[in-house]
Amino acid sequence: MPLYDYHCVKCDARAEEFRSVENRNKAPKCECGAQMRKALSVSNPIGDVEPYYDDNLQTGIRSKQHRREVMRKQGVYEKYGKGWH
C-alpha cells in the first residue's frame, strides 16, 4: 500500500498513512476533530506545461492554472516540505 500525506486546514497538523489507492481520498480525522485533506507530493516542479494526465488528480491537465483550479476543487494541497504552504 502506498503512503499518503494529509493536512489539517484547521490546526495545520500533518499526518502520513498507508492506504489503498481506492481509499487514498478518504482522509482521516485530525486530533483536533477537523477532517484532514490529502496533500499532493511534488517530486518534479512543473515548468512549461504541455497537456498531460495527472494520476494523483485523476484528470487531464491543460496548464498550471488549470492544475491549480482542479486541486482547489478537489480540496488538495501540494506538499513541498516542512514549513511550506
List keywords for this structure.
6 strands, 28% strand, single chain, 1 helix, four-stranded mixed beta sheet, 85 residues, alpha+beta, two-stranded antiparallel ribbon
Structural write-up:
There is one protein chain. The chain is of the alpha+beta class. It has one domain. 13% of the residues lie in helices and 28% in strands. It is built from one helix and six strands, in the order E-E-E-E-E-H-E. The protein has a four-stranded mixed β-sheet with strand order 2-1-3-6, with no helix packed on it. It is globular. The two termini are 26 Å apart.
Write a concise synopsis of the structure shown:
This protein has 85 residues and is α+β, with helices and mostly antiparallel strands. The chain contains one helix and six strands. The chain has a four-stranded mixed β-sheet, with no helix packed on it. A two-stranded antiparallel sheet has the order 4-5.
Report the end-to-end length measured between terminal Cα atoms.
26 Å
Derived structural class: alpha+beta
Q: pLDDT below 50 for ≥5 consecutive residues: which ranges?
A: none
Report the sheet with the most strands, covering strand number, pairing sense and barrel closure. Answer: 4 strands, mixed
Question: What secondary-structure arrangement, pairings included, does this model have?
Answer:
Elements: E1 3-7, E2 14-18, E3 37-41, E4 52-54, E5 59-61, H1 64-74, E6 77-79
Parallel strand pairs: 3-6
Antiparallel strand pairs: 1-2, 1-3, 4-5
